[in-house]
Amino acid sequence: MPVSESMRRGFLIFCLIILCFQPHGQSAEAGSVLSKAEKFLRAYPNFFSGYRDNMLILRDGGGIQFDDGRSKSFEELLSEADPEDELIQPYPTGPQSYGTPAVNFDPGRFRCAALFKKMYGANAKEVESHLTTVPWLPHSAHLFIRITRVNGVDRQLEAVSAELDQLPPEDKKYVLKPGGTFSWRPIAGSDQLSAHSFGIAIDIDPAYSDYWRWNTSDDHGKLIPYKNRIPHRSVEIFERHGFIWGGKWYHYDTMHFEYRPELLQPGN
Fold this sequence. Notes:
Layout: H1 5-20, H2 24-43, E1 48-52, E2 55-58, E3 63-65, H3 74-80, H4 83-86, H5 113-120, H6 124-128, E4 131-136, E5 143-148, H7 153-164, H8 169-172, E6 201-203, H9 232-240, E7 243-245, E8 256-259
C-alpha cells in the first residue's frame, strides 16, 4: 500500500521527538566509563575477556563490578576503591610530570582490593605460589629478587633491570641495592594491603629515597614538603615497562615502583 505524504511527515516528526529526548549526557557518561574499562582490557589482555553491564569479565568466567556508582572522599578512595576509581586521577608522564604534586594528588594509590586479590592471590600463600626469581642488574648488582609471574610482571621487571644495568654509575647507584619486593603487609598507618603484598612492587635503595612520613610533622594542616633524589631517567625506564612511580604522589614514596599498566594506557 503506498505511503501517504501525511504518514511520511508523521514518521519524521516521531523520529525528531525521539532524538530530542535522547539522554545525551547519560550516553556520554556511558562512553567515558567504557573508555576507562578498555584501559583495563588493554593492560591485562590475558586476564580480562571483555566488559559488559558494568562488569569487567574475567577469562575464567567471573566478573568484577567496574563502577559502584558511589561518590567517595579521599580517604574512602584509598580504602574502598573500585576499578573505575583507580583512574580518577590521571598518572602524568613526560618531561613536565616531575613538578611538586598538588595536595592529595596520588595517582595509583587508589587500589581496588577485590581486583588485586582476584588477579594476584587472595592471601600470602596464593600470591607466593605465583612468585618467581629474576636477576637484578646481573652485570652490576648480581642479585635476585622475587616477583609475580601473573600478567608477565616478572618479564617486565627483568626488562627494566636490563635497561637500568646500562646506566652510567652516577645514575645506577640509586638502584643497585633494592629495598624489597614481595611482602604480605599493610601500608604503613593503614589496614589496606600494600602493593608489595601482591608481588607487583619493588622498592629501590632506601638510602637515596624520600618518603612523606619521614618529612612531615604532627601538624596535619601543614603542607607536606616534597623531596626527591631519584633521576628521571630511571623513572622513565620503569614507566616504559608498565610500572608507576610513587615519586609522583603528594604522599610521595620515591623508592616505590609498582606494576599498574592501566594507568599508563593512551588517553590517561
